[in-house]
């Protein structure tokens, strides 16, 4: 009965007055009690700092903080009822009735502005009036903060909230460094609050997330990197909570992002989780590392193949891990060391606390990728082809392609349909086919090599892709195989 009827009620003083009346002086703690926040607060705030707690409500944060050796704490809220209650309970402390979007404190009067859920309540919805109030709050926080002061914000970091607060303190308001860490949470909770510290600084080109540092002069890129880190954490925790129990037959794809500070938005690891059986004879959980370059093979890239591989391994849950194409990996041991914490988190609850996770791979280990071509194109932005090198005499690199081999399951399905169509036709009949999208030209080359009665026209939007197919994949045109550089819709209309 304490919950609002609609999200917008979080912004109404009347709702909070009613809320605190129903609580009957029982403290309400957003996102954790002081004891859980204490380690992070001690790292960010000094006992001598002048502290302002905005949107304090009737939380015990301010009195607990004061008792812990921080004597200069001022607390404010727009609910007069909440402030009267706190003045009665803690008369020696400073309590003010005030709106955090239009504070009356003098400029640079605080070393720390503390916000535990206040921004989340203010930005209960994502519309223009709400954003306007949030911008007012950000500027007020900036105004009352002294040089080198910090705005400490504990938030659930909904996407639109994170977007606006990072934009404000990395692009609009100058000279802030930003550090984000996760607030300790219950293992049963699917949600994680974040502890964000915005610190006034003479150098604002650095941001941090859980100890990882990203440095860039562009505030937009710094904000993008932080949002990407937070979103990856939120997604993983929600997935982890869903996967606590074994569900026989279930498969999930889980992307793990890079643990480095590089702005790389492609997954470092892709984990295919396969739940095989309630009690595996070889243990609860096992991990298989897919050699680089083989991640598209049947056993690793399809549901059927993954289930076949996992069933043979003999574990309750099997984690098949592919290594990201745009990342580098030092060694098998380094990969295991990096992966192990996340693999433990993906183990089901039925795993024993001291149970170790075995890692498996094939004889070739991690394998290798070699970049043989790298370039850019206006349409697809980046071209990078990787393949294994076959060296002949004299050290010249040659790539060999078997035009009769199809590596991808969807190529095999498309080719099977075309084979079937040809087989149903009368003898010596001729077929004209249109392929939308050339890619590396593998499917087109296969049709040319195996179906002499088919004349194929491939339609490709990007001329750079055609060049790539010819230079690196052995693609060649002739009187049975042609390529047109054109939009696929136009090709269909002209066909």
From TrEMBL:
<dbReference type="InterPro" id="IPR013216">
    <property type="entry name" value="Methyltransf_11"/>
</dbReference>
<dbReference type="GO" id="GO:0032259">
    <property type="term" value="P:methylation"/>
</dbReference>
<feature type="domain" description="Methyltransferase type 11">
    <location>
        <begin position="52"/>
        <end position="153"/>
    </location>
</feature>
<comment type="similarity">
    <text>Belongs to the methyltransferase superfamily.</text>
</comment>
<keyword id="KW-0511">Multifunctional enzyme</keyword>
<dbReference type="InterPro" id="IPR029063">
    <property type="entry name" value="SAM-dependent_MTases_sf"/>
</dbReference>
<dbReference type="Pfam" id="PF08241">
    <property type="entry name" value="Methyltransf_11"/>
</dbReference>
<protein>
    <recommendedName>
        <fullName>Methyltransferase type 11 domain-containing protein</fullName>
    </recommendedName>
</protein>
<dbReference type="InterPro" id="IPR051419">
    <property type="entry name" value="Lys/N-term_MeTrsfase_sf"/>
</dbReference>
<dbReference type="GO" id="GO:0008757">
    <property type="term" value="F:S-adenosylmethionine-dependent methyltransferase activity"/>
</dbReference>
<keyword id="KW-0808">Transferase</keyword>
<keyword id="KW-0489">Methyltransferase</keyword>
């Amino acid at each position: 009965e304490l919950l609002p009827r609609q999200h917008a009620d979080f912004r109404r003083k009347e709702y909070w007055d009613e809320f605190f009346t129903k609580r009957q002086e029982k403290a309400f703690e957003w996102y954790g009690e002081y004891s859980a926040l204490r380690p992070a607060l001690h790292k960010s705030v000094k006992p001598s700092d002048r502290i302002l707690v905005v949107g304090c409500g009737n939380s015990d944060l301010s009195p607990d903080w004061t008792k812990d050796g921080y004597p200069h704490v001022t607390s404010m809220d727009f609910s007069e009822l909440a402030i009267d209650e706190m003045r009665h309970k803690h008369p020696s402390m400073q309590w003010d009735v005030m709106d955090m979007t239009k504070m009356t404190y003098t400029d640079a009067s605080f070393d720390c502005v503390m916000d535990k859920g206040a921004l989340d309540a203010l930005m209960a919805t994502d519309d223009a009036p709400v954003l306007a109030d949030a911008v007012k709050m950000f500027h007020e926080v900036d105004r009352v903060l002294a040089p080198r002061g910090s705005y400490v914000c504990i938030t659930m970091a909904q996407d639109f909230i994170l977007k606006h607060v990072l934009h404000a303190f990395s692009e609009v308001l100058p000279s802030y460094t930003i550090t984000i860490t996760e607030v300790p949470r219950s293992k049963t909770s699917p949600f994680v609050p974040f502890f964000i510290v915005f610190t006034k600084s003479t150098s604002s080109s650095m941001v941090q997330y859980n100890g990882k540092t990203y440095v860039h002069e562009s505030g937009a890129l710094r904000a993008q990197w932080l949002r990407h880190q937070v979103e990856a954490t939120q997604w993983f925790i929600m997935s982890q909570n869903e996967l606590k129990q074994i569900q026989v037959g279930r498969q999930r794809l889980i992307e793990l992002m890079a643990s480095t500070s590089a702005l790389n938005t492609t997954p470092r690891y892709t984990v295919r989780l396969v739940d095989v059986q309630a009690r595996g004879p070889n243990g609860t959980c096992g991990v298989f590392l897919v050699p680089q370059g083989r991640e598209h093979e049947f056993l690793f890239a399809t549901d059927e193949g993954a289930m076949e591989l996992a069933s043979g391994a003999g574990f309750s849950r099997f984690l098949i891990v592919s290594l990201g194409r745009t990342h580098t990996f030092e060694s098998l041991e380094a990969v295991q060391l990096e992966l192990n914490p996340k693999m433990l988190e993906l183990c089901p609850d039925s795993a024993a606390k001291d149970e170790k996770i075995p890692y498996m791979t094939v004889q070739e280990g991690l394998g290798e990728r070699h970049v043989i071509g790298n370039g850019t194109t206006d349409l697809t932005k980046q071209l990078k082809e990787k393949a294994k090198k076959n060296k002949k005499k004299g050290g010249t690199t040659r790539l060999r392609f078997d035009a009769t081999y199809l590596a991808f399951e969807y190529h095999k399905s498309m080719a099977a349909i075309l084979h079937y169509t040809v087989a149903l036709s009368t003898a010596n009949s001729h077929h004209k086919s249109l392929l939308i999208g050339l890619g590396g030209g593998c499917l087109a080359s296969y049709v040319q090599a195996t179906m002499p009665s088919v004349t194929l026209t491939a339609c490709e939007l990007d001329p750079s892709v055609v060049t790539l197919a010819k230079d690196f994949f052995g693609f060649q045109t002739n009187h049975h195989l042609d390529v047109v550089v054109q939009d696929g819709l136009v090709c269909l209309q002209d066909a």
